[in-house]
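// run 5 | inverse folding | seed 20
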């Protein structure tokens, strides 16, 4: 079937909630994707920060194939070996105490919200608690996750959302303090805002939030769904700041392609008990085999340190572009999570880059986002810069 036939078939049958680029992907190898016409593309999007191992990693594929031959699903009425192994590895990597596996990042946010509210309910028996989130944040599309997403455009058609949510300004500690009262049970934010435009938190901001939460007995929730799993040069972005959350959400590169998320928490915040929360598919043997193998490969290949090194090289190269091109206003980001802020809409550059065989994506209207596989090398950065310059020109 031709590329056009595939696209026509999809448009006929799928709900039109995405304005997809006119490409049909066929396969991936290393850090490259190939479309159904055989054209090769250097991938600096990684499925929106998911495919940190790149494509067709043999060790990862073998682990999944072996698990498929053994067992894919049994439900959470029982234990399974990959679940126990994946849980232990995530707890070790995060330094937190308990974890709940979900099917997605959005579900992880939902679980984090429930855990925070249950923690507050257990303290005073009240149900009028409030959560402080950040303007320009993005946490997901379900009703709970949407409620803490600081973008009115995403919310308008779906109100009323869950109540008790207030919005402060990212990196403005005073704006947070102004919203805190005796009902505040949690503060939720991304250590590096992704969809909002690649905004890293200032160290003093996170440190200030931690101090407030300790003083007021408020839970601090970090959304590490996009910025976690080695992308910024530490396993989780908060570790690079030295500010530990009470609850952390993870997904995307946690499974490197399979649909899996998680929320992890300290013993103090582990408020949910049998009957409070559940999932049919979450933590099944297949996805947990993937998670377990991802952590093994990360350790074996020293990918976090590699991301830190290559992230530094990418930063230098992007800063050179900022100095060279008047159409680029600035660069924002950390490690292998980078954004070029343009003085014009970014999507035309994305389209030009596709013509050059380069995949980059946007973050907001005017930000070019680069979240490549963590396995890229300096030669791939050089290739990306060459293709991007041709696109900018």
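// decoded
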């Amino acid at each position: 079937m031709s590329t056009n036939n595939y696209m026509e078939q999809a448009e006929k049958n799928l709900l039109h909630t995405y304005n997809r680029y006119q490409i049909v992907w066929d396969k991936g190898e290393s850090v490259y994707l190939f479309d159904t016409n055989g054209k090769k593309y250097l991938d600096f999007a990684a499925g929106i920060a998911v495919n940190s191992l790149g494509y067709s990693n043999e060790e990862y594929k073998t682990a999944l194939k072996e698990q498929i031959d053994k067992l894919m699903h049994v439900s959470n009425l029982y234990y399974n070996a990959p679940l126990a192994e994946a849980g232990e590895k995530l707890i070790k990597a995060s330094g937190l105490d308990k974890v709940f596996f979900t099917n997605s990042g959005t579900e992880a946010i939902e679980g984090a919200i429930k855990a925070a509210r249950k923690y507050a309910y257990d303290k005073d028996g009240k149900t009028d608690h409030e959560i402080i989130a950040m303007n320009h944040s993005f946490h997901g599309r379900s009703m709970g996750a949407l409620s803490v997403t600081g973008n009115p455009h995403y919310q308008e058609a779906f109100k009323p959302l869950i109540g008790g949510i207030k919005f402060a300004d990212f990196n403005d500690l005073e704006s947070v303090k102004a919203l805190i009262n005796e009902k505040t049970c949690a503060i939720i934010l991304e250590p590096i805002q992704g969809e909002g435009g690649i905004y890293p938190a200032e160290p003093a901001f996170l440190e200030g939030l931690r101090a407030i939460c300790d003083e007021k007995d408020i839970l601090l929730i970090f959304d590490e769904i996009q910025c976690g799993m080695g992308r910024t040069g530490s396993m989780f972005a908060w570790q690079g700041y030295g500010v530990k959350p009470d609850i952390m959400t993870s997904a995307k590169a946690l499974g490197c392609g399979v649909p899996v998320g998680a929320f992890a928490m300290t013993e103090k915040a582990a408020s949910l008990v049998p009957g409070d929360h559940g999932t049919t598919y979450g933590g099944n043997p297949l996805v947990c085999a993937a998670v377990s193998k991802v952590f093994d490969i990360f350790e074996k290949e020293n990918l976090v340190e590699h991301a830190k090194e290559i992230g530094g090289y990418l930063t230098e190269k992007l800063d050179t572009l900022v100095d060279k091109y008047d159409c680029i206003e600035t660069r924002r980001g950390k490690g292998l999570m980078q954004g070029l802020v343009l003085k014009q809409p970014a999507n035309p550059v994305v389209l030009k880059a596709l013509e050059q065989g380069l995949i980059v994506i946007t973050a907001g209207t005017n930000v070019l986002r680069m979240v490549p596989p963590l396995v890229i090398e300096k030669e791939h950065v050089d290739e990306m810069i060459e293709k991007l310059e041709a696109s900018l020109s």
